[in-house]
Amino acid sequence: MIKQWMHTLFVAPTNNWLLQLFRYGFVGGVAFLVDYGTLFVLTHYAGVPYLWSAAIAFILGLVTNYLISISWVFQHSGKMRIWQEFVCFAIIGVIGLGLNELIMYVGTDMMHLHYMISKLISTAIVFFWNFFARKFMLFNK
Predict the structure, then answer these.
(1) CA distance 62 to 56
(2) CA nearest to 23, candidates 66, 72, 76, 71
(3) Mean pLDDT lowest for which of 23-37, 80-94, 104-118, 120-134?
(4) What is the Cα–Cα distance from 19 to 9, expressed in whole angstroms?
(5) CB 65 within 8 A of CB 28
(6) Residue 141: is it exposed, middle or buried by C-beta count within 10 angstroms (0-12/13-18/19+)?
(7) Over the stretch 10-22, which tens digit does the pLDDT of each residue have?
(8) What pTM value is reported for the model?
(9) Distance separating alpha carbons of residues 49 and 42, to the nearest angstrom
(10) 36: exposed, middle or buried (C-beta count within 10 Å: 0-12, 13-18, 19+)?
(11) For 73-119, how does the pLDDT look when each residue is reduced to its tens digit (9 = 90+)?
(12) What is the SS3 assignment for the chain?
């Protein structure tokens, strides 16, 4: 019983959006570690301005997210070729990047929050944008 439940939760392909949201949370966690870690290293250690670091980190997180998402969270819709799917995935991500940059700027420069706190707020908001946009605009059969 537990083995079957674990298989359904973590292994079996699914179109159930709640299971996909759960899995996307894990994928988002991995992508977040790539994104957040890169932001910190580039800004703190390499001296790159935080908005540039945030953009670079976001792109690395986006690629990580895509690679894991297509193999574990979403099923290929069959509506387009893989490269077209990635372009659409990236466009949604670029909109997310715009939200990320806006939230980072408002939080850091206008509200005087530490850039890492601004990133946490941004991550939460952009996570839901990315999931629902990708689920219903891109991977919806």
Answers:
(1) 10
(2) 72
(3) 80-94
(4) 7
(5) yes
(6) exposed
(7) 888 888 888 988 9
(8) 0.71
(9) 8
(10) middle
(11) 887 667 778 788 888 888 998 899 899 889 999 999 999 999 999 99
(12) CHHHHHHHHHCCCCCCHHHHHHHHHHHHHHHHHHHHHHHHHHHHHCCCCHHHHHHHHHHHHHHHHHHHHHHHHCCCCCCCCHHHHHHHHHHHHHHHHHHHHHHHHHHHHHCCCCHHHHHHHHHHHHHHHHHHHHHHHHCCC
For residue 117 the two structure tokens come to 């706190």
Structure tokens at 122: 């941004």
| Confidence at 9, pLDDT banded by 50, 70, 90 | confident
Please give the single-letter amino acid code of residue 40: F
